[in-house]
Every structure is written in C-alpha cells, then in structure tokens.
Amino acid sequence: xxxxxxxxxxxxxxxxxxxxxxxxxxxxxxxxxxxxxxxxxxxxxxxxxxxxxxxxxxxxxxxxxxxxxxxxxxxxxxxx
Amino acid sequence: xxxxxxxxxxxxxxxxxxxxxxxxxxxxxxxxxxxxxxxxxxxxxxxxxxxxxxxxxxxxxxxxxxxxxxxxxxxxxxxxxxxxxxxxxxxxxxxxxxxxxxxxxxxxxxxxxxxxxxxxxxxxxxxxxxxxxxxxxxxxxxxxxxxxxxxxxxxxxxxxxxxxxxxxxxxxxxxxxxxxxxxxxxxxxxxxxxxxxxxxxxxxxxxxxxxxxxxxxxxxxxxxxxxxxxxxxxxxxxxxxxxxxxxxxxxxxxxxxxxxxxxxxxxxxxxxxxxxxxxxxxxxxxxxxxxxxxxxxxxxxxxxxxxxxxxxxxxxxxxxxxxxxxxxxxxxxxxxxxxxxxxxxxxxxxxxxxxxxxxxxxxxxxxxxxxxxxxxxxxxxxxxxxxxxxxxxxxxxxxxxxxxxxxxxxxxxxxxxxxxxxxxxxxxxxxxxxxxxxxxxxxxxxxxxxxxxxxxxxxxxxxxxxxxxxxxxxxxxxxxxxxxxxxxxxxxxxxxxxxxxxxxxxxxxxxxxxxxxxxxxxxxxxxxxxxxxxxxxxxxxxxxxxxxxxxxxxxxxxxxxxxxxxxxxxxxxxxxxxxxxx
Lengths: 80, 582
What we know:
Chain A is mostly helical. Chain A has four helices and two strands, in the order αββααα. Chain A has one domain. In chain A, α1 runs antiparallel to α2. Chain B has a domain of 383 residues: Sodium/glucose cotransporter. Helices cover 65% and strands 4% of the residues of chain B.
C-alpha cells in the first residue's frame, strides 16, 4: 500500500483547487454555499488521508529506535 | 459587566494553573522548557492545536469572510487542514525522535550539530527571532483590543477595560503562567482553552444562528439574491493564483519555533497519530462557524469598514446571545490569544537560553538551576518590553511583520526538510536558503511600502462599490508621468486602467477595446512597475508576483538554492552522517 502514498497525496492536494465551484451559488440544504460545503468535505477528506498515512506509512522504525534507548536517555529530566 | 467578570475569573484560573504547575516542576531545563518530554497523547493534541490557534482563527477569519466571503475557508482552513498535519507527520515525528535521542531542545541546536557549524545556527536564530517577536507582540495588542471591545456595554459606550489595562492584564497573566509553570503550565492552560473554546464556541454559534432575524436560510437566500453581496457565497472575486498560493503558507507552521519545540515534548511518538488525524476536524470546527457567521454578518450588520469588520463576531455575540455566553466565549477568545502567546514567550525564552546563553557561555559551566533562572528572568524582562511596545500600538507595521513571518517560516521549510531527509545537504546550502529568505522578506517589505499609495481599496459589504478606475485596453498609450496603472480585474484577466480625470489624461487611454468589455470593473491588482509587466502586482493588502503570493517563489527558490549550493560544497563529516542517518 505504501506505493499509493505519493499518488494519494498529490490527488488530495490537487482537488483542493476546486475551480468548478468558483462561481457556484447553490445553497446546500438551503443554508450552506456549495463552495463552503465542498471545503468542509475536504477537511474530512484531509483527516481520512492522514488516517491512511498513519496506517500505511507510519515511521515505526523511529519509534523502535527510541524504545531501544537506555531508560536514562528516554527520561532525561528524571536524572537531572 | 457580566462578560468582564467571567473573563477576569477565567484569567485568575489561568494564572493559578501556572502556580499549580510550578509546584510540580523540577527546576531543570528539560522540565521547564519541555515538561520533561512527558506529555501524553490527548494533552499533546489539545496543546499542539492551541499553539496554532490564534485570535486570527476566530476574529480575523470572520472579519475576512465578512469582506471576502466563503473563499476564506478554502484559502486558509482546508489547506491548513491538510498541510499542517502532513508537516507534523513527516517533520514533527522526526524532530521528536532526534530530541529523544540527542537531547535537542531547539531547531538551532539540531542545525548546528547536523551541519557542524555554529554560524548557520546563529543566522537561523536571528531570522526566526526577528520573525517571531512581532508575532508575539501583536498577540498582546490583539488581547488588549479584545478586552477593550468586549468590556463595552454598548458599541458607543466607553470600555470598562481600557486598551492599556487590557494589554497589561494579558501580559501579566501570560508572564505568570510561563514564569511559574514553564511548558507544563502552558500545556495545562491549552487543554482548558481548547476544550472551552470548542464547547462554548459550538453552543454560541447554535444560539446566534437561532436568533438571527429571519433565520439563516432567509439570510443566505437574501445574500444570494443581492447582485453585490452574492459574491460572498462564491469565490468569483478571489484570484485562483492567490487561492493556490495560500496552500504554501501552512508550511510555516512546523517551522515556528513554538510548534517545533512543542513536538519535542511528547512522551511517545504514538501521540502524533491521533493528533494528525484529529487536526483537520478541529480546524473545521473552529473555522466553519467563524467564516459562516462572518458572511451572515455582512447581511445582518452591513457597512463595517477596515479593521472594524474583525469585530463582527463579537458584535453578533453581543447582539444575538445571552450575556453569560458572550462572557464565556469572550474568555475563550482571550485564551486563544494567550495560549499562543504563552507558547511564543516560552519558545523565545528557550531559544535565548539554549541557543545563546548556554551556547555562548565563554566556557563556563552553568548549572540547570542557573539556566532555568536565566530563562525566567528573560521571560520577565521580555514581556515587560513587549508590553511597553504594545502600548504604542504599532499595529500596521507589526501586522505586516506578522504576515511576513508566515511567509518567511514557510520558505525556511526546505531547510528543515533537507536537514532531515537529505544526507548530502550542507551548511552552505542552508546558509544560501536562509539568506534568500531574508533578502526576499526585505524586498517584499520594500515593495509593499512603495506600492501602498497605489493599492486598490477593498470593497465594503453593504455599500455600493465605488469604481475609481476604468478598465481599458491592454497596452493603451498612457501619458508620460500619468497616473495609469495596470490591473487584474478578474482571475486571469489583466487589463490596463487609469484614474479618470487626472492631469495629463489621454482620451486614448480610456478608449474601450474589442478585447475588454467597456463596463466598469472593480480593480483588484495594480502593476507596481508597469515596465516590468505583471512581475510585481499589488492588491488591496499585499504584493504578488505574477499574481502569486511571494511565498511561492520564495519556497521554490529556497529549495533550489539548498540543492544547487549543497551539491557544489563539501558535505558534513562521516561521523555526523553516521550519527544522524545510521
């Protein structure tokens, strides 16, 4: 799944520029302008994208490296 | 009166949190600056979010939406909702691991060690301090102003808390919190602040929405039917180039010292997981109501000019919600101001202690207690100076500096990315990038100053637009020394305009062209140097480059210089490479 990271990020970044909504005056539900509703949806999409990154591209090796450090280094302030 | 009492009670709570954190402190720098790197997941998220949530996110966004419409959300909020978590994911986690491994407390310590060079660290220290200090002072100004505004019993009444007292209250509370509690005190306040604001912000929006005359649906329909105001529910007045350019600005977030230092304070790396996922939603919860109510405000309270529009949310709050709720939300707004202010003061204290006092100590060994003492004295002296500066109310110049700070920090992002991910990057590459950023900031400042007089005036919602310039054909002859200027009247459309009736006016200059409809259009951008075409344009508030924000060429230039200069210079030693890359 890691190979999907770059294409997904590029796609999500690209759809932020929603040129098709530029002059859209439709009110979704009679209240929310379409351009605003789209970007609210985009915020949810951004959150889902981050969830995807956490699942497939989490830098676990960094966490493992720190876990392997001696306790004295991990908890510096306790020893100073 | 009730809002003032609620806010003052809240401020007492904030100051006492500093006292409680003091009793838990261990009097060493790891504890004072980073809470011993022991911040848990939920607190880490709430605090990191609060670090970035300034008064602008609430008051400025509604004020901007009042003038420019719903596009403000996409311009700033949804792009930040993607880019900031990405930087936290890719850069924040790496900084955290390096901090745990090598004990770094600041970005500069890392840069100095990574590139085996003291001076590059000092250069970055000078630039980042110069960009952060105005940002911090403007927060005090903002806090004083909010207290001043919210303590008026009516829009024309004298404030119960004058500006000078508002600034003093904010300064004293921030000082007490940071001086006593250090990072722990700041983080605890952030938790209270974010929770309070998310909770009462939502309630306030629901109540305001319910009390708006005619209901929200009617108000929005009226805006849509109004030929002038209907632009507020679209982005037709917002150039696409500018909209895209703004996606670069959130790169600044992780480069702000208070954000990167905050990343070092987490106990475990897993704290970053929920932070990056929740961050876009939290931004949405703050920005959506602020932007939406800003647009609604343009219809129900029209005609606010200039910075008055930033007070639209407070006006609606006073007009459409009960006083106790106005007080609670006012406290939330004040805490948003102070939460980021506390982080900025602490970050400056950390940088001056670690990057200057400890680094340039002339070989003397200082105890941890001495360093914490220095940090606390710095906080006292610095906040006292900041208060005196805030009293002069240098808002214009400091707001400009604050805007440039976002651009400058964003353009420094390639330096951090190269340090973390590119072995071959060198101190000379970093120096070239940093110098480029400093040069561009000074040049942008100069261009902004020289173009102030020709800057188009922004429209005021509720007032009929005054068309002061007439669109005419591109390249129409203008008289020597005439007042003619070129404009970009709509996204992608460049035309030449001139002020009618000015001395030396040529009839040719106002002749309609077959390419451009001879109707009046509001001017959005003017050429600063007509001989350079659209290279440097000026809109109502800022300078652009071919219509793009300066941050775009600055980021690309910074990255390019880092690559080219690094490839042409000697890389760090093998020992350093092994230390950082294994």
